[in-house]
């Protein structure tokens, strides 16, 4: 049986929670449309839909920090995907941090957990 997220229910995009498969560290949140879903299944590489670029995006195609899919889970409502991946390279976040969730809020104040593992200027030229 092949099960697919309910893209009609979600307006064409489903949120994708991405975790490192062995440590279960949450790396990022992205979105998939049907084409990204199909590309991910076909290649085993995490492929997302970029809402800002309005195009498919293979994670790591610019930085080399690709995500190899180990397992895919769909929630009970079929409107959210969980990808368990092997994050190649140092970081999942475009800021150079391992995880996109590097800002910690404690007692109303923000602090950064860890340092960037690469320089985004060097990798992306931004």
Summarize the structure in words:
The protein is mainly beta and 126 residues long. It has one domain (14-124): Phosphoribosyl-AMP cyclohydrolase (Ubiquitin-like (UB roll)), CATH 3.10.20. 12% of the residues lie in helices and 36% in strands. It has helices spanning 34-43, 120-124, and strands at 14-20, 26-32, 47-50, 55-58, 67-74, 81-87, 103-106, 109-112. It has a 4-stranded mixed sheet. A two-stranded antiparallel ribbon has the order 3-4.
Write the layout of secondary structure elements.
Elements: E1 14-20, E2 26-32, H1 34-43, E3 47-50, E4 55-58, E5 67-74, E6 81-87, E7 103-106, E8 109-112, H2 120-124
Parallel strand pairs: 1-6
Antiparallel strand pairs: 1-2, 3-4, 5-6, 7-8
CATH topology: Ubiquitin-like (UB roll)
CATH superfamily, by name, is Phosphoribosyl-AMP cyclohydrolase
Helix content: 10-25%
Strand content: 35-45%
Low-confidence stretches: none
Please trace the helix and strand order, writing H or E for each element.
EEHEEEEEEH
> Can you summarize the main beta sheet?
4 strands, mixed
Shape: globular
Q: How many helix segments?
A: 2
Overall pLDDT: 93
Rg calc: 15 Å
CATH architecture: Roll
Given the helix and strand composition, which structural class is it? mainly beta
Number of strands: 8
Strand order within the widest beta sheet = 2-1-6-5
């Amino acid at each position: 049986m092949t099960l697919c997220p309910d893209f009609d229910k979600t307006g064409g995009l489903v949120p994708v929670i991405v975790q490192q498969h062995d440590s279960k560290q949450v790396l990022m949140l992205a979105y998939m449309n049907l084409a990204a879903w199909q590309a991910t299944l076909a290649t085993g590489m995490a492929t997302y839909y970029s809402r800002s670029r309005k195009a498919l995006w293979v994670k790591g195609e610019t930085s080399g920090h690709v995500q190899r899919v180990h397992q895919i889970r769909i929630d009970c409502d079929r409107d959210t995907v969980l990808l368990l991946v092997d994050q190649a390279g140092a970081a999942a976040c475009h800021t150079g941090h391992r995880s996109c969730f590097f800002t910690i809020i404690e007692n109303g104040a923000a602090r950064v957990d860890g340092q960037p593992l690469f320089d985004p200027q060097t990798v992306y030229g931004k």
